[in-house]
Amino acid sequence: MSTALRVAIMTDETGWHTGRLKKAFRARDVDARCVDLAQCRIDTTWAPYGLAIPGFGHALPDAVFVRGIAGGTFEQVMFRLGILHALRECGVPVYNDARAIERSVDKSMTSFLLNLHGVPTPATWASESAAFAQRVLMREAAANRRVVLKPLFGSQGKGLRRLGASRRDGSLAPLPSLRATGQVAYLQRYVETERPGFDWRVLVIGGRAVAAMRRVGGKGWIHNFAQGATCEPAPLDPVLADIAVQATRALGLDYAGVDLIPSPPASSNGDGDGDGEKHPLVLEVNGVAAWRGLQSVTDLDLAAALANDLLDRKLAAHAPVPLKTGDAFG
Ligand SMILES: Nc1ncnc2c1ncn2[C@@H]1O[C@H](COP(=O)(O)OP(=O)(O)O)[C@@H](O)[C@H]1O
Ligand SMILES: [Mg+2]
What we know:
By secondary structure, this protein is α+β, with helices and mostly antiparallel strands. Helix content is 29%, strand content 22%. The strands form four sheets. It has a five-stranded antiparallel β-sheet. Strands 2-1-5-6 form a four-stranded parallel β-sheet. Strands 7-10-8-9 form a four-stranded antiparallel β-sheet, with helices on both faces.
């Protein structure tokens, strides 16, 4: 019988990322296979764990790499996250852990934790009250600032609205209906940048920033790769790297794609020293981060760095949870 470690790559689509990951695991003699979370089952008659992972019979993988959690109904998404929680409860190292993924998927929880841990991030408000959100908007506009309304669970730069006084007549448009954002207002102070604007994406793996890029252009002020931004290599400035690592730690993530933006000059936020590039603010932290854009501007094999961190740090530090029912596979 083969004694190779077996890793499940959780994903609903196979492609470039899963190909790179499988290759990286193969290079370490690890058998990695893709599993769709939607195909996993909780089955209390399925001994010994009550958890059925396709391709693993009654056993479980030695570790799980979470590459993608497909969208769906509230029930479907909760169920898929539940499978990841269940794997952890069975003693399987899950990279990233479901609890940390949940914190990073919810932008309001991300903002809360960043602020709580003293990680520099723009002022942010989240509320179910449209009246509160309207007051925030008016107060910010009175101070000549704009805000960004974001979907709580958004990604790839979709559904973002920039609100505030229009440049032409100075009038303030009312807050749009919160229906489009699921009746929750997540408002973040807009960080004014020079044209053409850019932001940074830093990949943090195992407590270390390993690569950075600038995302330039895109859709107006939205610099996501998915919105057509161009990726340029960026040096791993120690301040940038340190803040990205702090942000990843604040959310308890093993690895993360951290989005940062240069803070505005002193005149517009009152606490900078004008050297915006030295004072990055964290916009969001991605716990299920893609790395294709970043890979195009770095020589480091990012899939290998991720696989190695999972095997050499996460799995190595891991003590298996003994089964009360005895070793069913011995
Ligand atoms: N507060 C902000 N100030 C300036 N630009 C922002 C702000 N928030 C978002 N952006 C721009 O929009 C992009 C997408 O926002 P982000 O919060 O990362 O959401 P998503 O999950 O959709 O990527 C950012 O990468 C940045 O270019
Ligand atoms: Mg982003």
